[in-house]
Design brief:
148 residues; five-stranded antiparallel sheet; four-stranded antiparallel sheet; globular
Length: 148
């Protein structure tokens, strides 16, 4: 193979690699909430899947979410999802086998500002939704408590 041919092959490989990486990154992490930190700065709370485990990140730290915690939080604080509700899907996170978490925005007829919800879909249970701020607070508490 010539130098030019090897160079073209390398660039083609790198381009495909970066496309695959970007596609995975967009499906593997998303922001679920923002709040003002103690210093007054805006702090994002994100969920991501790393090595098959769900993690929550905030303030530059990350904590592993205990297995089953997301389902339990949505079962406790959520309600069945109304499939006819007018929503805008913001992001989708594949959690593994037959589980998906969606971040959706809903503007009810009586609200002025749209609210963010998390919708948990599993083949084992009904579709559940809860306010993203509530789920965020519960998962942050669980993550911090289980990891000291």
């Amino acid at each position: 193979m010539s130098y030019t041919g090897a160079k073209a092959t390398l660039f083609a490989f790198l381009a495909v690699r970066f496309l695959v990486y970007d596609e995975r990154a967009s499906r593997r992490m998303f922001k679920i909430h923002e709040f003002s930190s103690a210093t007054g700065e805006l702090c994002s709370v994100c969920l991501r899947v790393r090595e098959g485990r769900l993690e929550i990140t905030a303030d530059g730290s990350s904590w592993s979410v205990p297995a089953g915690a997301l389902r339990a939080v949505l079962a406790r604080f959520g309600a069945p999802f109304d499939a006819d509700a007018r929503i805008s899907e913001i992001a989708r996170l594949d959690l593994g086998e037959h589980e998906t978490l969606r971040h959706v925005r809903h503007l009810a007829g009586y609200d002025v500002i749209a609210r963010d919800y998390l919708v948990y879909e599993s083949s084992e249970s009904e579709v559940l939704c809860a306010l993203a701020a509530t789920v965020s607070a519960a998962l942050l508490h669980l993550g911090r408590a289980t990891h000291g």
